[in-house]
Design goal:
This protein has about 220 residues and is of the alpha+beta class. The chain has one domain: NADH Oxidase (3-Layer(aba) Sandwich). Helices cover about 40% and strands about 15% of the residues. It is built from 8 helices and 6 strands, in the order H-H-E-H-H-H-E-E-E-H-E-H-E-H. It has a 4-stranded antiparallel sheet. A two-stranded antiparallel ribbon has the order 3-4. A hairpin with a 5-residue loop joins strand 3 and strand 4. Helix 2 crosses helix 6.
Length: about 220
Amino acid sequence: MTTHPHDPLPPLPVYDDQVMLERARVFRRLLATRRTVRDFSPDPVPLAVIEECVLAAGQAPSGANKQPWHFEVVGDPGLKQQIRQAAEAEESAFYRGRASDEWLESLAPLGTDASKPFLETAPWLIVVFEQRYGLDEAGDRERYYYTRESVGLATGNLIAALHNVGLATLTHTPSPMQFLARILERPAEEKPFLLLVTGKPAPNATVPRIVRKDLPGIMNVR
């Protein structure tokens, strides 16, 4: 059996129980302020900030460490316009008949519709792609594992990292999303996973009034 090299685990901070609890509460309170935003400011955000957040996303665990994700960071106005036009075409079809009445009823409290101006207003669009397989040096397919789960974990890291620096986000999943691969000229092995809009919220931004599930609603202890 081949032996692969291992490194020592980087040291983790050592906290007593009370400090651990307080840090957990501080982080929970931070994430409790995260909301999906649909009104963005056009104010610029440094690319270096986005790059650091993407690097944080890339620290997520993945099946067999294949890291099956790619992030297209789009700030070009022309590309953003193309993405908006294609997304609104799909969304129009969705709201005109592709979605069931039950689905539309569930969306109604959120106030969503086929108009997506934020795709041009926000300074950055981050299109997350799932790499369904890889290619070795000979161009042959290399199998990847648990790709969707892995990309979901990385996307969660990305959203938390962006919120941590004070940026608002919107997870946008027009269906189908293959137009993103076409516009951004991504290879055949990549599939659009999610379009993440990010930037500073507009001064007049509002969000729907919602209630999160409490701890007994999401957790059991056995």
